[in-house]
Each structure stands twice: as structure tokens, then as C-alpha cells.
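Memo to structure team: turn this sequence into C-alpha cells by end of day. - J.P.
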Amino acid sequence: MKSLTQALALLLTTTTLVLALPAPELVARTAPNIPTASTAKSLLTGLTVKAQGSSDGYSRDLFPHWITQSGTCNTREVVLKRDGTSVVQDSACAATSGNWYSPYDGATWTAASDVDIDHVVPLSNAWKSGASAWTTAQRQAYANDLTNPQLLAVTDNVNQAKGDKGPEDWKPPLTSYYCTYARMWVKVKSVYKLTITSAEKTALTSMLNTC
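Reply from structure team:
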């Protein structure tokens, strides 16, 4: 009887300890090819400072996006899988369950419908800073870039609030993400040889100084 009582006590203690453990915290997955702060600062100095061009002629349709990447998976579904944890996809590659942490605002989500895939440097911004002269194939590559830090799973209404604004007009709600955001932005602009405005450069410099 004594051994049974001791065993039950041990079981209860173990159960209590397990229940007391904190749930694993979701953290942001790292986008690919983000430069260090020092490299980003160097890249920033190499960008051409120029007033934004006209938005005349711009249309999202000129940047074919969410193309098929492999099998039946399109770009959005690939990023959802990459940026989420425990993501389950159906036979059509749509995410049916999973967990996503939005690095812009720190929110967590369990439904893919609550998550947008943000173009870090928005398509409209790219158009006004050089992409208007690109071919459709070049714009398609830009809109579906999985190699550089251009695509990120974030809270849908935060992405909508950002719209096509540059860092001079919009920054992530989490100031702790300023450094990473600026590093990503500069990398994308550098890779695609897009111009920046003077206000944009000032904002990026300030954000990089938080690193």
C-alpha cells in the first residue's frame, strides 16, 4: 500500500511539473539571405538616391505572382510552409493547419487565412524605383523571389496597413524588428538595383542604427 501511495504521489508531482512548463513560444522564421547590419549599411551607401518615378501604368498584374514553384505548390504556399511551424498541407498544397508568428507585430495565428505574404519592398514601390523598365519575366521573378528576403508571412491587416509605403512612411509595429526589416529592404533594393529616395535613405539609416 505504501509503495502504491508513493507511486501515485510521484505521478501527481510529475504531472504538475509537466503542466507547469510553459508552452513553446512561436518565433519568427528567418527569411533567406538577410545581410548583417554592417553589410546592409555598406549596401545602402551604394544605392542610387533619386526621386520616385511615376506610378502611371502600374498594375499588380504586371508582376505575375504566386506562380507554381514545384508540383502544385505556388509561391504563397511555399512561404506559408517555410515561415510556419507544424504546417499541414492538403493534396493541392493549401495549408490546412499550422502556426504562424508575424514578426511585424508579434501576433500568432493558426489559420492561413489570417496571414498575408508581404512583398517587403512592395510591387508599386519597385515600379516607381526602376521596375517599370523591366520585362514581365523580370517582374515575375521579383514578385516570387524565394532566394532573397523579399517575401514574408505576416498578419494580414498589418500588411494591408503597410500597403505600398516605404520605410519613411511605414515601419513594423514592433520596434525590435526595425533592424531586420531595414536589412531586408536594403538587400532587395540592392539586388534589383532599385533606387531610393532621400527620405527613404534617412529612415533606413535610422533603423539600421538600432541594430
